[in-house]
Amino acid sequence: MQKSAVKLCFIFSMLLIIVGCDNVQKVLTPKPEPSVKIGFIVAGERVTYPNGAQLAVDEKNQQGGLFGMQVELIGHINSEAILDTSVQLTESLIVEDGIVALIGPNRSSHAAVVGPVAQKHQIPMVTTTATNPNVTQAGDFVFMASFTDSFQGAVMAQFAKMELGISTAAIVTRSGDLYTEGISEFFSSNFLGLGGNVVSHLFFEGGTDDFTEQLTQIAEMKPDVLFTAGFAQDIVNITQQARAIPLVNSNGEPTVFLGADSWDSELVFGDENAEVEGSYFSGHFSPETNEPMARAFVETYEAIYESTPTGGVAVSYDAVKLLFEAIERAGSLEADAIRDQLAATESYIGATSIARYNENRHPTKSAVIFTIKDGKKQFYQQIDP
User: Fold this and answer.
1) Which one of 157, 316, 319, 348 is CB 3.0 to 4.6 Å from 126, fit for a cystine?
2) Long-range pairs for 76-81 at CB < 8 Å and ≥24 separation?
3) pLDDT tens readout for residues 149-196
4) Three-state secondary-structure class, residue 268
5) Is the confidence at residue 124, as pLDDT, over 80?
6) Tens digits of per-residue pLDDT, 191-203?
7) Phi/psi at 80 (nearest 5 deg)?
């Protein structure tokens, strides 16, 4: 009987030790610090875009974060640019990760299908380089950080007609994409409205490598300029094959190549097959800027990443900073309050600048025109709204 009592006392003592250790473990393990989670989605191979967003997050965290909490950027690169993937990533970021806002996507076709998801969950969304004006149609939680293609198309049409003195233009467009079809239409309608003549407008399917058929037809029309609406590899192949034909105007001079913001990519400039010397294209931002805030952004980015930021990187940085400013003005992480303060944005100055938003949540902002000289893009002029 005594032995049994001793055994029971020993077992009871061991249980106390185990329970005690368990309690100590709970005390020593700190609860995870709360953070403000921001989602970020980029479609395609422009893997530097998240760098701009992360830089804005790092700067905010160095300043103490938001409401005493650190900001966490949860980014995803949809490298194959599959629409359904962007939608699934958005659902996951909202439902599983608990983001308070979404930055991106960068492509208009992706932003147009992601917007309804953000609107359904009432999550503020600020696109990056998605430029088609229809991307905000999902509703009042969807905003753009870039100019619209209606503005960009008008800028390039006016530049061609007034600055270059161009009379005839041909257009080649990647079909089935909201951005490429939209920018071509805006350029065409504005160029015609200015008295220009669009002598040919041909389309190609995504994944096309051989443009001989389209370019041969265009060559017969001898246009002064060729406006190319496609993505990086499309631009490389089209310009290379157009020069090989060669594509010339009625005076026998090389047809000038024009493009839009999809040209602003190292995938174009870094490809030795691209024949883009002397071309012109519109973009969001020039790293040659002398604006103090933009200059600071460029210098900080170059110091960290040892490369020069493109327009997409700059707009990704600005989209995050726009969101932060709206959150701080709202004094809250409530979605409705953030949305209202995004809409109330005025005189934002960052890598780029936004004067205000209109009723469609499109920003009023400038565009930049670049030319390509000695294989490098160079600032040509800024066009204000």
Assistant:
1) 319
2) 76/39, 76/40, 76/41, 76/42, 77/42, 77/47, 77/50, 78/41, 78/42, 78/43, 78/44, 78/105, 78/110, 79/44, 79/45, 79/47, 81/43, 81/44, 81/107, 81/110
3) 999 999 999 999 999 999 999 999 999 999 999 999 999 999 999 999
4) helix
5) yes
6) 999 999 999 999 9
7) -85, 0
